[in-house]
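[09:14] KT: can someone run the structure on this one? pasting the chain below
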Amino acid sequence: MSDSMMKILLAISIFGMTTSSNAETLSFPSFRIEIEDGWVHSVENGPGGDSRSIITLRHPNGAGVLKMWPYDAPAVVSEDILRNMTNLETSIPLTWQNWGDYSGYQYDYLERRSFYRQWWLANERTIIFITYQCDPESKDIETEEIDKIVRSIITTPALKRSDVVDIRGYTQIRGE
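[09:31] RB: done, structure tokens below
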């Protein structure tokens, strides 16, 4: 193989690596997440003027919507407390799992012609409630990407309890 051909192949492979690793980091007061290029996000107030914000992620060509509701708890959240927050029958088995820097429960179900995957996650005094919703026929299309987003959750420094947080003022960092 000639030197010029080797240089071309090397350039193509380097270009391929740089374009495939275009992740975007979204930073919020209590956590950060990684999303791949192409995903869009918004931050809005909760239902009925609720002061807690909702983070919505979706891929324009995707099958569903991922929503995240972060909460600041008054004390460290135990497995039992988080299990009670799921509001699921105790007869439904849930396994404690690690998702990034957070741990908690995941539960999949069908309801009203929609597929739902829910997570109840905690890291000390921060709780993140996450829901993914799509058509049942499309549930396997984004599963891997959605799980990757949830596994990318990283904690940010704890806030003083007297601080009031409005995540609408989040920062966006590209290429971290």
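[09:33] KT: thanks! DSSP finds three helices and eleven strands in the chain.
[09:34] RB: yep, looked fine to me
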